[in-house]
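Appendix B, record 7
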Amino acid sequence: MGRARVLKTLGAVLAAVVLATSAASAVATEPDPLRSVMWDDMHAVILGGGPVRFDGRVRVSAPASAEDALNVPVSVDATALGAVEEIVVFADMNPIPRILNYRPVAARPTIALRLKLQQATPIRAAARTPDGVWHVGGVFVDAAGGGCTSPALAHGDPTWERHLGEVQARAWTSPESGFTRLRLRVRHPMDTGLAPGIPAFYLEDLAIRDADGRELARIDSFEPVSENPVFTVEVTPSPGSRSLGIGGRDNNGTEIEAEVPLPWRQSALDPVRR
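Structure tokens (predicted):
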């Protein structure tokens, strides 16, 4: 009886392993709804070949046709998934496909940005949930091209280096949701290295912290993010925080530092102070 029970248990374990392996394989091999010839490469290189599920809950918004290939507005919203550990934004047909990685440590899994496109391409966002599955949403954007190989406009301004790394930002707090919406702009040429004679020079990372020094969100950006990058995120600072800290650097080591005041209320009777 003891041997039979052991064999039965081993059989159940093996069956569970086979089912789990089959499920993971099924998730990883779903057909691409955008039918991109580059999807297999994106899956392997950008997502490390991990389990993938094409998921309508990851909403990617972008214009159907890019009016300006140097500044294509894109927003990502993965809040319908619940807990999200990381969001990766990428464009299949770009010569440099990875746009950014976003880690919403104490923030909503949403981000808005502008990016450069070299040609018509799917633009995707992959949101990784705690179970290790990448949930992928995307849209197809038509573009005339040239966004990644054009030199930055900053190079036509002899004073651009004086303003390198300057940050303009504003924050809005919603008492109902508890989130603080932050929009920030960093002065930077964001050179891809694909324009003749101009090496790659781009903002690499930005961290957003509250007044206690707690990291709320981190953005790792890459060459295809638009010149003078603009990001919009929604974070949750600690109670009583009156400012947010922004810190980062570019690939040449230039430091980015800024402090953004938060609206605050001293009491229920006092107006919001800015």
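Remarks on this record: The first strand starts at residue 52 and ends at 54. The two ends are 76 Å apart (CA to CA).
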